[in-house]
Amino acid sequence: MGQSARERVRPSLPRVPAVAVLAHHLVGYRRTWRAGLFSSFLLPVLTVLGFGVGVGSYIDQGIDGVSYLDWIVPGLIASTALQTAVSESTWPVFGKFQWVKTYFAQSAAPLRVGDILSGHLAFVVFRVLTTIAAFLLVTALFGVLRTPWAVTVLPVVALLGLAVAAPTFAYAAVVSVDSWLAMLLRFAVIPMTLFAGVFFPVESLPLALRWLAYVTPLWHGVDLCRAATLGVAPQWSVAGHLLYLAAWAVAGWLLARRAFRRRLVV
Questions:
Q1: pTM of the model
Q2: How far apart are CA 118 and CA 232, in angstroms?
Q3: Handedness of CA 169, 175, 180, 182 (dihedral sign)
Q4: Which residues pair with 66 in a beta bridge?
């Protein structure tokens, strides 16, 4: 076969090579999505019933003039987006370096480090969006979403997921053993979930803890989701929230690209 014939049959990368990496993850997910479908709908049902209906029945006055169920749901949406992003950015990333070596195989192909990183991050954002779309559908059936602006939750959680996933990629790429990933969950994700305004207003915290909550990306996502689902103004400016989350995403991407380059480029 001549050179021109080989060029005709050789598969070419898309114009944006990161799309090829995203397609790789989607092909794998096509074989496993059914396993997570039930939990995607079961989780929001249990959280709404357990926290919103169960705990909410003991809070007669509500919060900020709305029922506790209506108030807590956007916090649960944001925290679910955070947890989904972290779960897809810890062991999956660590495993592709340490166990299955997928990243090294991709690096041997005509893919740059940025392509590998961006394609995998795009898949994480896809997982966050599909998970939260199911959450929104369930909560809509409960009548919790009070305004059509609730659909803007989707771009908010996409940005929140990216802001969380990018630095987590960098962390997972540099740790030597996977026990460090469990420590990330124990000392970062759980405290954020508890104290970033998901279950109670951060204004009830002491001043020092309140400012720690403001630093976390989760609080900014919670405030935006709460404003969207309740149809109220956020505590901080919308532009300020979005710029802050974007800063986390950009800084995390740069750190992750540096960590990936150290591992993949000889």
A1: 0.90
A2: 34
A3: positive
A4: 63
